[in-house]
């Protein structure tokens, strides 16, 4: 029986993180704030001293539309980073921090898998360096300041009925989606409807990951709209004196976290917004710092390329001035079979026709990536049940679009399983082919931006929205927010807003349910379908299988 991810991680021979930083990246020991021997934050002043260094090449790892069969995007990101180091390149990876909610829910952790993991795996998947706790408590401090402001009747007066800022907790808890607060009498304030989001859906998280430094973070927090007065004029976080104390809580968290892969290669793990309800990328600070420290930086964006990659390009790269040099689309035979109509319990049986049919999904993502002017390759994450005929079908489909596909065995073989992929990625990144451009210009009207994403990326026939939503978008344009990019909140399981519509549907309709202004993060959120900002636990959560064994070791994490 193969070893579990946690068993493999537990057997790893980790180097002191100061040694990894010095040997691989040239970071002096006094620039590291260590959290034990194997994880550290990198001093912000030291990172600022690197601004004159040339930038390395930025490589995005994205994927086909997710299925229950699994794709292995983070595993591939780690494996490719190790592969680049194996072929003699100075490379590192940048990924997001896992949220506790999915760890104890259904998705599991986000530290890779098999022999392509970041370690210490248990720490990374649980409390890590406390960043999410800091973000959550900073968010809830602002929530407390808002209710305190209302309680004491401070100016500017906030209309108790128009508070637009929920609380957060880093756990899947459907019971908190909608609550009533301040019950119990006059001493407890004015009762009102409230609710909780998960921390990774917080605008503070988005701001944290899009800020360039602590001052930028503080300024953005001040711009957050937290509600309205009775004249329906906006009230900002700065009006309740939020930015100062919140930035104090975040001053340590904003420094990127340095850890290592199983092969002792460097990795930044920092920030973690969801990709179906936020922009789904690690922090700008970590990415920009990595580009100053390494010649090749491999990063990922959450879920399929229609969500994560689109937001990486249209939000993160646009706002941070990043120029990606290449993109890797991760696919599995199993996932493509599901897109081809095969049930999950039948994936172990060869079905070449289903693979060919499901490749429509892969080809759609390849076409979409080319629209951003970034050269693409495909990594086929290999499973033991894959047959040569099925693998060849995927290769042939990719090659029909002028794209090379590589069978990657990093889960079982570590860097040796991605060496060929790494060589090709270097070839693409160094070729000068990249001519990156966002999908739409800043000055395009907001509703037209939504339509452009829906039609160009999702292949929808139309976008529908009632007059209230359309008027809200026009009001935001009039108020000076029209140049913001759009962050689509959509199911990750389909190009459409129907999670059951697999493969590469066309002619569907995207109905806007709600739009939200994230004035601090500087994007507009467009909610579609049944996407929720507070997930619930499944019928049998992963938490049921997580425990400490007799030796005090954690079991059940994956």
List its salient traits.
558 residues; alpha/beta; Rossmann fold; Domain 2, N(10)-formyltetrahydrofolate synthetase; Formyltetrahydrofolate synthetase, domain 3; twelve-stranded mixed β-sheet; four-stranded mixed β-sheet; 24 strands; globular
Count of beta strands = 24
The fraction of residues assigned to DSSP E strands is 15-25%
What is the third-level CATH name, the topology of the largest domain?
A: Rossmann fold
**Protein structure class:** alpha/beta
**How many H/I helices?**
19
Number of domains: 3
| Average pLDDT rating | 95
Principal-axes geometry comes out as globular
The value of Rg in angstroms is 23 Å
Helix content: 25-40%
> How far apart, in Å, are the first and last alpha carbons?
16 Å
Low-confidence stretches: none
CATH superfamily label of the largest domain: P-loop containing nucleotide triphosphate hydrolases
Assembly status: single chain
Going by CATH, the architecture of the largest domain would be 3-Layer(aba) Sandwich
CATH class of the largest domain: Alpha Beta
Which sheet architecture does the biggest sheet show?
12 strands, mixed
